[in-house]
Amino acid sequence: MGLNIADLAISSDDLTAGGRIDDRFTADFDNALPSLTVTGVPDGAVELAIVVHDPDAPLPHGYTHWTAYGIAPHDGVVDPAAVRTGPNEEGERAWFGPQPPVGHGDHHYYFWVYALSRRVEGEPTREEFLERYGDAILEQNRLVATYSR
């Protein structure tokens, strides 16, 4: 079965696709998690997962800011209190807002949503999740925003 990317979408009242992330969502300021809304969840999805990742970070695999599992497979606003938060790059189970190196230019923050055909066990890292559950992804999509210091 080919990967369908036509229907599933992730959006935010707090972010604009391709736009700059407001300071309040960054680690230097309020470190608030932006609101996220998922639509177009495909039939057969048993769980959603969200991964926020900065591939521009000067690290071998970029920088993971948030991993969230156990999200109910329906359209609507994601409730952070109702997700199972996995580790970010700091090893914490929390949102860690953007904080790129000063003068490093624009970093791109990918807010990935995945519709899965099976449940995620435990709280894997981003790399573990992609390795273990890549074959369970029914659809995926992303919202990309930028930030620099």
UniProtKB/TrEMBL annotation:
<comment type="similarity">
    <text>Belongs to the UPF0098 family.</text>
</comment>
<protein>
    <submittedName>
        <fullName>Phospholipid-binding protein, PBP family</fullName>
    </submittedName>
</protein>
<dbReference type="InterPro" id="IPR005247">
    <property type="entry name" value="YbhB_YbcL/LppC-like"/>
</dbReference>
<dbReference type="InterPro" id="IPR036610">
    <property type="entry name" value="PEBP-like_sf"/>
</dbReference>
<dbReference type="Pfam" id="PF01161">
    <property type="entry name" value="PBP"/>
</dbReference>
<dbReference type="InterPro" id="IPR008914">
    <property type="entry name" value="PEBP"/>
</dbReference>
